[in-house]
Amino acid sequence: MSPDRPPVGALFRRFRDRLAVEGPHRLGGPGGHTGHGPKVTPAPGAGVARTDAGARQAGLAPQPPRDVEPAERPRRRGGRGGGEQLNVPPAEFTSYYGRPILKAPVWKWDIAAYLFTGGLAAGSSLLAAGGQLTGRPALRRAGRLTSLAAVTASTFFLIHDLGRPSRFHHMLRVAKLTSPMSVGTWILATFGPAAGVAAVAEAAPRLPERGLLGLGRKLLPPAGNAAGLVAAVAAPALATYTGVLLADTAVPSWHEAYPELPTIFAGSALASGAGVGLLAAPTGEAGPARRLAVAGAALELWGSHRVETRMGLLSEPYTVGTAGKLLRAGRALTAAGVVGALVGRRSRALSALSGGALLAASVCTRFGIFHGGVASARDPKYTVVPQRERAQQRESQEPDVSGPGAGPNGG
Q1: Which of 129, 209, 249, 319 is most solvent-facing, going by the fewest CB within 10 Å?
Q2: What is the pLDDT of residues 297-325, one digit of tens each?
Q3: Residue 355's CB: how many other CB atoms inside 10 A?
Q4: How far apart are CA 292 and CA 288, in angstroms?
């Protein structure tokens, strides 16, 4: 820069002073001097228009109005601060390369079968206790034998899923009340021996009357009665803990259905036990089985209806695909089984058909709940969309803290 040239700041101040005196005409704006015609000199102090009226008089483009109060800036979401809200469209749910956000359960059909056989064992033990307390030996015998067979199958399916029998044994080394799996292992370990003793006691009449086996013939019936009652006391926990186990996972449609899953599994267990009684006991002894069928069907149908209607988007996996077909079949078979049980009070064939329908309904319900949860874990929308809805709901419930005194300095 030449030392004789005035500094930039002085030039700018000189330009600003001339602009305040001569107005925008100095720059050749509308109505200014262009070299043709007389030069019009504005009144001193006209300067840049400060109002809309002044802009029109000077022939300038409209300026932001200075003679009215400025409009209030829109507040940011959540009401905090005074920044402008960014008009960014909400992003659609997605995941990397379309992969699921959650890892789908690695459980296979053996866990679904474990859910069914555990419920069947619990329902059959309750049926056996009812036959024992009301003096119905055929009903008691059918319930005890089925309960032992079912709990044995349930233990096999669980160990098969764990991979090694030693893992089931290792789970008995600790008792953790906050872990449904640990609690369920202890429930199964308590229920299994009791159901076994009660079932073995049914063989007492076939033992000889003398000798060591004769002593067993005398001791087994009272021991079986006590063991049967112990199994019946543990049966509700065995029937419902699997529902708590599924709801304790991160699988969306299982976790959100935590109030209904234990109810569904309890109803399914009662219905399956009633099916055993209707199949195996004569019509004269099937009264407790019919009442058990009505109670179980009511719980199961109510719970299934809730999971398909209450949870919004997370109810969808229970209504479409394999899960939807199984649950619809389960509801139809449950209704048919209850109607047949009530109508066929004197028909052995109709009672047996009703019992088979109730057992099939329990299978469909357990497998339908299982497939519905797995489907919700595989599709990322069942994870992302409910999370965003919950976040938006929390934001809408936050108090508006903007306004005078909300800033960091109280301004």
Answers
A1: 209
A2: 999 999 999 999 999 999 999 999 999 99
A3: 27
A4: 6
